[in-house]
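Cross-posting from the chemistry board since nobody answered there.

I work mostly on the small-molecule side, so proteins are not my area. We synthesized flavin mononucleotide and want a rough idea of how it might sit in this target. Sequence and SMILES are below. Is it possible to get a predicted 3D structure of the two together?
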Amino acid sequence: MGSFDSLSYLTQSEAAEVDESLMGPLGFSVDQLMELAGLSVATSIAEVYKPSEYSRVLTFCGPGNNGGDGLVAARHLHHFGYKPLVCYPKRTQKPLYAGLVTQLEALSIPFLSVEDLPSDLSNDFDVLVDAMFGFSFHGSPRPPFDDLIHRFVSIHNHNQTGQKRSVIVSIDIPSGWHVEEGDVDGTGIKPDMLVSLTAPKLCAKKFIGPHHFLGGRFVPPVIAEKYNLVLPPYPGTSMCVRIGKPPQIDISAMRENYISPEFLEEEAEADPINQFHKWFGDALAVGLKEPNAMALSTVGKDGKPSSRMVLLKGVDKNEFVWYTNYESQKARELSENPYASLLFHWDGLNRQVRVEGYVQKVSDEESEQYFHSRPRGSQIGAIVSKQSTVVPGRHVLHQKYKELEQKYADGSLIPKPKNWGGYRLTPHAFEFWQGQKSRLHDRLRYSPCEINEQKVWKVERLAP
Ligand SMILES: Cc1cc2nc3c(=O)[nH]c(=O)nc-3n(C[C@H](O)[C@H](O)[C@H](O)COP(=O)(O)O)c2cc1C
């Protein structure tokens, strides 16, 4: 998320100059910029309005570049799982635009004429995308766009009666707004989301809706330097970044409807360790970040539980191994009560796994071996940190780290501190949870039992 106070805003002429530079000396074509702009709009919409709730998206495209961005966004939204429709009343006959229309037709995306529009747009559509006019527009909108703008305005006013209404997303400039002054007389479109492209235009300062995003991840440093652009970094590989303050969220209203394959008794492995490996493999295969992160809960002699994250470092001889400081809070609690619970949450797969059992220290040789396999920085860090004790400030840790870094700069062996090592948990219970629609989740519990003097795992389904 960007910093909101120091953002740069472009005037209309600066915005035009930036586009000219991009498409002149900087070698971009209009097709490329339109593709990236439309993709940014689609990804911004997908960040906020999930297709499970907001699938019906009607995009209103004007005759210029802004309309082209809308056509591209509609195509990407289709591929993201939405059901887009397009209203494109004044088609531009240039090959670029004709191509975009052909691409949408090939995806069977319906085109609605203005006459076909239902009288109450909110009844039929979850999202209305305003791609009518961009930053180069001057003057007053002409028919049919003047009337369409009125319809957008009345949808917003309608909301004040408390009924469900479509949300409005404007691309770069809310249509009808002055590029620099904004909604001059206060009677214009009041979008819920504004997706500024390349850099926000001056009018964006007047945007008061809950979701302001920036898209157009193609600004080269020469442009940023020339126009003193202060723009937030895009996270990871994202095509968009939130630049407005995030809205106040009603936590009680936050919920996901999980959609996952069923997890049936017939599919469950007889041995829960094999089941764990199977699901861990799935978590790796879909690229989840740190699937080996697990919450470890312990309870000391005072009977008060405490939890923290640790990293699983192996499932060895059917036991779950992690490493830590033997003088930390968790270590003290484990010395008082050697039972613990581990919890894995694999969000992207709608899964959690609970593992409960008895905990012992791993052998000193094993801890020694693992300690020396870690990066030297982590080895020094383990010596520096008297985990869970009070420190007067960061500087104390850094000072000590620096001293040790110098001491071992010759590459000599860094000795493992005595108070650092591993634990292994021998499981006596597992539960595999798979999120499902309407809270009817799958929960399969494994508990040990004996059949014909043979130790086996009993699998039972628990109510969600
Ligand atoms: C994702 C993640 C992984 C962590 N892994 C470990 C770990 O493997 N070992 C460890 O001692 N602390 C780890 N920590 C830090 C612990 O959560 C915790 O702050 C620390 O162990 C002190 O806990 P305690 O005071 O309850 O003993 C991790 C934290 C996070 C967020």
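Reply from a structural biologist on the board:
Welcome over. Reading the output above for you: Residues 265-461 form a domain with the Pnp Oxidase; Chain A fold (CATH 2.30.110.10). The pocket of flavin mononucleotide is lined by residues 290, 293, 306, 308-311, 322-325, 328-330, 387-388 (CB under 6 Å). Happy to explain the token format if needed.
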